[in-house]
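Appendix C: a fully annotated inverse folding record. The material below is reproduced so that readers can follow the format used throughout the book. The structure is listed first as tokens, followed by the designed sequence.
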């Protein structure tokens, strides 16, 4: 019922659009069709076919008919009744016959009484009698037994039969009203020929036959009765909606799903899901090569996942359809990520369905995007989410190279933001510790700066290519007025230099032999000074 209410609301919204385009008109037709299909399945399988109940389908079917295929329209009736010479209005009697076909007996009675004064004496008498009988049409209730209702209905039908016989004795007649009144009575007494002749659609005929001929019919009576009615029409002229409804009435559920899919993929997916919940989908499973519920949910998910605004709904449908996670991953990683907000949403849905591979690939993709845009902190954060230490190391290398090229230590905000998030990586720690060294040196806290520099070298957190630069940075501390390094610390610096020179992958050792000689001389002098202190 909630789905049907939503469909009706959408129909009203579309109809109230300032400009009804061809597209909007098509959407209205689609929602009308979906509502008609959903409503009929609801009546057959959920309302009148529950275990332990023996409910007539007739009142529910007539409600379905008049909600989804309303006729006659109220505004048409108002226009007809407002005419000056009501009895001479050529649209009056077709209107009343339609009222009879659709079971609008109260409106029919009011209209008959309204027109009676303008008819001939004989026609007026019968119009009033028919109106009175129409008002007395038996209505069943849950408190009444089937036997009691059938007895009342039989007496009512006999009364109509007597009226039909009496009016027929006055025919043929030049009085058009008598001819039309006879037809109205024939319809109400369930005459199949009169109903078939006046019915404009198979829905009209089926509804009238159920209402007047079999008022206590159960849902299982629909296939045989619908078959007789549908045979009166050219099946080739049926719309897809007609075919879907007839298949549903005939319990031809595989064909029903196929036609639903032609109306709209949303309808077939939800019908298959609903049919599975009420345990009537097994018939379709035997007829389909694949599970119809999974098939239609997957098809709908494929449509939505590529939509700019409905991608999340698409992933939800894929999840509901029991699609393998490896398949969902491929769909998820192809969703365009136009903004950080959408990226977070996609990652959230992937985590919801435990699509670990998708989360990994999306974070790497986002990390590369942010890297290209120069947002290195954001890039590191994405790589950290999936443990991509190699990429983090490459970004740190880039930050170090930028420092060497410019001489400006500007990476502070980047490393601070990622370190604050609890990320641990030796290259990041190296950059942080080198900044500490740089700040201490700038503040002329040379002993502290020397300690930090030595700690960096001893912990081996510095990449091999940076060791030579660190050793060169140690030269001013070795040559300064203040003794910064003890003899033991100086020997450690010399060991680091020897290790670097002997390394098979030394990177940038020193620019030239001069720097190496200067470092060696500085270490020797500092060593000598340390022994004298």
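Designed amino acids, in order:
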């Amino acid at each position: 019922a909630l789905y049907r209410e939503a469909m009706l609301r959408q129909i009203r919204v579309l109809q109230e659009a300032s400009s009804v385009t061809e597209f909007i008109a098509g959407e209205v037709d689609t929602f009308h069709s979906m509502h008609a299909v959903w409503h009929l399945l609801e009546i057959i399988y959920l309302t009148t076919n529950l275990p332990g109940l023996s409910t007539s389908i007739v009142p529910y079917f007539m409600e379905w008919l008049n909600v989804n295929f309303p006729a006659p329209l109220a505004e048409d009736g108002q226009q007809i009744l407002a005419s000056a010479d009501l009895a001479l209005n050529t649209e009056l009697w077709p209107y009343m016959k339609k009222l009879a076909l659709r079971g609008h007996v109260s409106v029919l009675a009011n209209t008959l009484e309204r027109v009676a004064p303008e008819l001939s004496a004989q026609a007026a008498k019968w119009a009033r009698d028919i109106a009175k009988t129409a008002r007395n049409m038996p209505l069943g209730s849950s408190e009444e037994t089937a036997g009691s209702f059938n007895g009342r209905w039989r007496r009512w039908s006999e009364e109509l039969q007597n009226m039909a016989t009496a009016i027929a004795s006055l025919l043929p007649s030049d009085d058009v009203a008598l001819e039309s009144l006879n037809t109205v009575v024939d319809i109400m007494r369930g005459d199949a020929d009169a109903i078939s002749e006046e019915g404009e659609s198979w829905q009209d005929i089926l509804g009238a036959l159920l209402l007047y001929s079999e008022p206590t019919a159960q849902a299982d009576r629909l296939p045989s009765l619908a078959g007789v009615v549908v045979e009166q029409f050219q099946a080739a002229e049926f719309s897809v909606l007609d075919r879907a409804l007839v298949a549903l009435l005939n319990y031809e559920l595989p064909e029903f799903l196929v036609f639903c899919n032609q109306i709209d993929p949303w309808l077939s997916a939800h019908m298959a899901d609903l049919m599975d919940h009420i345990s009537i989908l097994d018939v379709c499973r035997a007829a389909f090569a694949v599970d119809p519920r999974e098939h239609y949910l997957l098809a709908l998910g494929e449509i939505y996942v590529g939509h700019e605004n409905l991608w999340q709904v698409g992933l939800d449908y894929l999840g509901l359809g029991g699609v393998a996670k490896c398949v969902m991953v491929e769909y998820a990683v192809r969703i365009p990520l136009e903004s950080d907000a959408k990226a977070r949403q996609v990652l959230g849905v992937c985590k919801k369905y435990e699509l670990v591979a998708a989360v990994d690939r999306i974070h790497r993709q986002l990390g590369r995007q942010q890297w290209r845009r120069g947002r290195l902190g954001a890039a590191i954060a994405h790589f950290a989410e999936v443990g991509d230490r190699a990429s983090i190391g490459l970004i740190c290398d880039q930050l170090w190279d930028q420092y060497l090229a410019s001489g400006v230590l500007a990476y502070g905000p980047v490393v601070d933001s990622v370190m604050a998030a609890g990320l641990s990586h030796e290259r990041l720690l190296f950059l942080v510790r080198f900044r500490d060294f740089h700040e201490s040196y700038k503040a002329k806290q040379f002993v502290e700066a020397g300690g930090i520099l030595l700690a960096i070298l001893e912990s081996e957190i510095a990449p091999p290519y940076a060791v030579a630069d660190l050793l060169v940075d140690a030269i001013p501390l070795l040559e300064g007025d203040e003794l910064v390094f003890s003899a033991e610390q100086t020997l450690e610096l010399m060991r680091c230099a020897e290790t670097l020179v002997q390394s098979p992958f030394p990177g940038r050792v020193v620019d030239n032999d001069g720097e190496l000689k200067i470092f060696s001389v500085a270490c020797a002098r500092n060593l000598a000074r340390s022994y004298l202190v």
